[in-house]
């Protein structure tokens, strides 16, 4: 069994990005610049945004954080996005989700200029992904594809089961795993899927992205499978300083002995997500997806 080490792989990816930034600046280019909008003080969102800002520093990016109280109006937020869209110094913009109920996430997502949408959530990027055209692939699916490529996991002709059909993980994963060059045969499962255990037992690769702690059990996985655990759920713990720990969607202890490859939680998919956001921002700065 080989553990897919997201910590180490993301460190490698970040090193590669930092080298490219250095070359870019040496050649007279500007530092890539990522902007983030954070509304309110939700603990998890604060942590995510702080680690994104820290990661920018690590690779030599500029970053700007725009903070708003939860009382901000939708119009104010949309107007800020317009300003950022036309700011030539900013290459990428992310709006940390979730947003307060009175603000439409759909409107906010669609307001972001697709050429700065480094989260890859804009319909134009999702549509291009489905068509196999150049686009920003959302960070978590991109991170998973990097892990698969860098560990040389065989995909062509294999059976892949994705559990969860969200727009940010499951659905884009199902598209990526069926694209030309990857060539798995994909089954996309969700909360209404019947006979999930039988479907999983057929799979060479299982990607669990449903947000249910230790859902995937050993009796659902065939010998020699690859298992990618996307889930991260905070559960109370008296053994950590923070008072909580992270658990995945896979019963790691019992599933791992059956696998050829498996990601741990934490230290698997999670670290790859932030590195992929940086990757997209660099691509945007280099105008590799959209030319203008
Ligand atoms: P979501 O709640 O939007 O979607 C969950 C999906 O799982 C739904 O499509 C639903 O149909 C499916 N589902 C629910 N119960 C099911 C069941 N019993 N059987 C089969 N399918 C079922 O979740 P999401 O935003 O895609 O996130 C999923 C998990 O991944 C969460 O734990 C989230 O925290 C985590 N996540 C991790 C990262 C990362 O960087 N590691 C990034 C994004 C999300």
Characterization of this structure:
By secondary structure, the protein is α/β, with parallel strands linked by helices. The protein is 39% helix and 17% strand. The chain has two domains: 29-114, Leucine Dehydrogenase, chain A, domain 1 (Rossmann fold), CATH 3.40.50; 139-270, Rossmann fold. β2, α2 and β3 form a beta-alpha-beta unit. 43% of the residues are buried. The mean pLDDT is 97. The structure holds nicotinamide-adenine-dinucleotide (NAD). Nicotinamide-adenine-dinucleotide binds at residues 140, 163-166, 168-170, 189-191, 193, 196, 209-212, 230-233, 269-270, 273.
List the uncertain runs: none
- What's the number of structural domains? 2
CATH architecture descriptor text of the largest domain: 3-Layer(aba) Sandwich
CATH H level, superfamily name of the largest domain? NAD(P)-binding Rossmann-like Domain
| Cα end-to-end separation | 46 Å
Taking Cα atoms only, what radius of gyration do you get, to the nearest Å?
Answer: 19 Å
Bound molecules: nicotinamide-adenine-dinucleotide
Which structural class do you get from the secondary structure elements? alpha/beta
Q: Quickly count the helices.
A: 10
């Amino acid at each position: 069994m080989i553990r897919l080490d997201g910590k180490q792989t993301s460190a490698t990816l970040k090193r590669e990005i930092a080298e490219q930034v250095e070359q870019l600046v040496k050649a007279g280019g500007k530092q890539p610049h990522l902007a983030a909008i954070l509304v309110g003080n939700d603990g998890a969102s604060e942590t995510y945004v702080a680690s994104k800002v820290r990661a920018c520093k690590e690779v030599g990016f500029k970053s700007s954080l725009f903070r708003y109280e939860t009382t901000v109006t939708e119009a104010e937020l949309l107007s800020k996005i317009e300003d950022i869209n036309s700011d030539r110094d900013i290459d990428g913009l992310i709006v940390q989700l979730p947003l307060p109920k009175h603000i439409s996430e759909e409107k906010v997502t669609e307001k972001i200029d697709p050429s700065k949408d480094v989260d890859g959530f804009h319909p134009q990027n999702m549509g291009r992904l489905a068509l196999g055209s150049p686009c920003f692939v959302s960070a978590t699916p991109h991170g998973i594809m990097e892990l698969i490529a860098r560990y040389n996991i065989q995909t062509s002709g294999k059976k892949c089961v994705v559990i969860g059909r969200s727009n940010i993980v499951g659905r884009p994963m199902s598209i990526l795993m069926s694209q030309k060059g990857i060539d798995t045969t994909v089954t996309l499962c969700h909360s209404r899927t019947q006979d999930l255990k039988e479907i999983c037992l057929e799979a060479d690769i299982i990607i669990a992205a449903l947000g249910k702690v230790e859902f995937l059990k050993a009796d659902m996985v065939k010998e020699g499978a690859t298992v990618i655990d996307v889930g991260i759920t905070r559960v109370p713990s008296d053994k950590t300083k923070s008072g909580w720990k992270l658990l995945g969607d896979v019963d790691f202890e019992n599933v791992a002995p059956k696998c050829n490859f498996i990601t741990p939680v934490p230290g698997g998919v999670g670290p790859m997500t932030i590195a992929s956001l940086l990757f997209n921002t660099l691509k945007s700065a280099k105008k590799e997806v959209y030319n203008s």
